[in-house]
């Protein structure tokens, strides 16, 4: 999932340092890593991120069909997070966070990012990257002690979907293929029509499903759109 999403020019230097220069909160040193590396996939793109807490419809910018949104989020998570799901951490991270992502606060995640420069930091079901997280945390004014729960991650991902044109896609004014392109520019695990990630080979990114699977899955969720 998030975040899990969900918009969005992806900025990630090979050093992993881009977008990680500004601190959000006062911080202390992270505690030692104690959990095993999740089998996560690659990071999503610079896009949108945190708002409030998921499944409070009044807080959504636009009402959506929750069943369809859940199915789309599951599809994205399949491309991004692997079996670790909400506790996924990009597998290239040599130093892991001080606990499972769902147990951490935003302050703890931010402190881990600052303490471990030069490595990937994509985190959670939707593989949010630091620049995205920090942009939206500031914009939304989320407290540092907000926990990175599954509900929060899903809500962030819905924001990314909205930024990708979800409302127009649902209304029929945005063709399905264009919506899919927008999603692929946010989440590197999703493919373009040529089968490659929009970020293929950049910082190790690659698509983790075929275009046919992506297209067929979206048609099954929204048979009446695009």
From TrEMBL:
It comes from the Bacteria. InterPro entries: Lysozyme-like_dom_sf. This is Uncharacterized protein.
